[in-house]
Specification:
alpha/beta, 13 strands, 309 residues, TIM Barrel
Length: 309
């Protein structure tokens, strides 16, 4: 397992984004890529979720496939032994909590307790309309899905009563392998997302945040968590970052960068800036359907970047 201790301070984990959202034709190639990531020593692999080719997804993929997140992770679970399995992120308002809770608990049992559940609310209004889910209430619905799943996972005969979902009088199984349930990592960078972490989450999992922005968001989440009466010390803070090696330095100063781009030394400098901002795990994202490119990115990180951290 890869454990990066940067600057002699805190241990940082490194994950890898599996391109189920990039139009890879054969999903078996995604599973093989995850196996390679485990062999290279990455701590985790992550998949994304959209159900329709909506807005920017359609622009990127055209007619190419976007493979279902938890199905891909299930196949990966059966082909790997140690790498953790993350979602970056599942869109909670699109899911029935009982079905999602059963699927995630089954995956957690199948994998020996390796699931990290990244969740969010999404901004693709056309996709909500196609699914018949009210866009305006997506935040309230997401909070309720989380509360319902926590009840389903922790109570033998779950009892939950909310605006959208009610459960009572029937047993629910399986329960997750991890106790009390897989870590719930909340996506987003809005005040509502921060509050969701403070009230219901086990951590923050975000994208497109510079080290400066990340540090500010982290401080706000910690304060909100304290204000809600919870201990913030167990919270996990992670970020999914695009990774591209070039011959030229980034245009932005290190504290303002939102990607891992540039020369090897630039990428090392940026990773250290995120670590100083309080990031516990960075997920490397090659954002490409080209499996060969992913092999190159994993090799480059392992051979050129990791020794300098």
């Amino acid at each position: 397992m890869m454990r990066q201790t940067i600057g002699g301070t805190r241990t940082m984990k490194i994950g890898y984004s599996i391109p189920n959202n990039q139009g890879v034709e054969d999903p078996n190639d995604l599973v093989a890529l995850a196996v390679k990531a485990e062999q290279f020593g990455f701590d985790s692999v992550w998949v994304a979720e959209h159900l329709f080719h909506s807005s920017y997804v359609a622009e990127r993929l055209g007619d190419k496939p976007y493979h279902e997140a938890l199905t891909v992770l299930t196949a990966i679970a059966c082909a790997t032994k140690t790498v953790r399995l993350g979602t970056s992120v599942l869109v909670l308002p699109w899911h029935d909590p009982a079905r999602l809770a059963k699927t995630v608990a089954t995956l957690d049992q199948l994998s020996g307790g390796r699931v990290d559940l990244g969740v969010g609310v999404a901004t693709t209004q056309d996709e909500f309309e196609n699914l018949g889910v009210d866009f305006a209430s997506r935040g309230r619905r997401a909070n309720e899905v989380l509360g319902a799943m926590q009840a389903l996972w922790t109570q033998d005969t779950p009892k939950f009563s909310g605006e959208f979902y009610q459960y009572e009088g029937l047993k629910f199984s399986p329960k997750p392998r991890q106790s009390p349930y897989p870590p719930i990592l909340i996506g987003g960078a809005s005040k509502a997302a921060y509050r969701r972490v403070a009230d219901l989450g086990d951590g923050w999992h975000t994208i497109r945040q510079s080290p400066t922005q990340f540090a500010k968001g982290r401080r706000q989440i910690i304060q909100l968590t304290k204000d809600s009466g919870r201990d913030p010390s167990p919270l996990r803070f992670s970020i999914n970052l695009h990774y591209r090696v070039t011959d030229s330095a980034p245009d932005l100063p290190v504290q303002d960068r939102i990607t891992l781009t540039g020369t090897t030394d630039d990428i090392v400098e940026t990773i250290k800036a995120y670590q100083a901002a309080g990031v516990d795990e960075i997920i490397i994202n090659a954002t490409s359907p080209d499996i060969a490119r992913h092999d190159g990115v994993m090799s480059h990180f392992t051979d050129s970047v990791r020794p300098k951290l």
